Amino acid sequence: MMNEFPHMQPKGSGWIEVVVGCMFSGKTEELIRRLRRAKIAKQKVIVFKPVIDNRYSADSVVSHSELSIESVNINNITEVYERVGDAQVVGIDEAQFFSNDLIKVCTDLANSGKRVVVAGLDQDYRGVPFEPMPELMAIAEFVTKTLAICVVCGNPASRTQRTIASGDRVLVGAADSYEARCRKCHYIPGEGEDPALF
Ligand code: ZN
User: Fold this and answer.
1) Which of the listed residues 4, 55, 89, 140 has the most CB atoms within 10 Å of its CB?
2) pTM here?
3) What's the Cα-to-Cα distance from 4 to each of 69, 97, 196, rounded to whole Å?
4) Does the active-site annotation cover 94?
């Protein structure tokens, strides 16, 4: 499932790597793994995440399995321009919470020679593409899609199942209200019936 490609500092050129998937698919773990390897290689690494994501720690990116890396929390993705400094590798987590300015910021960073590693949800709880991730995937050099395991049938899962009825696109800090499901077992609460009940 995981693409193998050289996670090395580009020579004279930057690039964009995108890690997308549903919740519980290991996106953030994969982001942290790549950034830690860059740090071990003595590369300058900086990690950004949106302020909206305070569920585990205010100043670090933490995966569900509690891997962590120090982060800079920002309200607007354009704050990256003044904060990025001379970092060679730039990580961005929970990227689906940023505006479409993410596309230009990542492009500018890569064009200036930086390696940009971006993790985020590719679909919302309805299975609808979660902008700005689709466009980012299109312009990236490398795209990795992480899959979880369907809690109902055990198949590879690409969908985030919301387990409570809410029409809001984002329920922050509500990991208990979600689970991973495959295409066959996924449904939209309030619009359909739970296939797990039949
Ligand atoms: Zn399933």
Assistant:
1) 89
2) 0.89
3) 23, 27, 35
4) yes
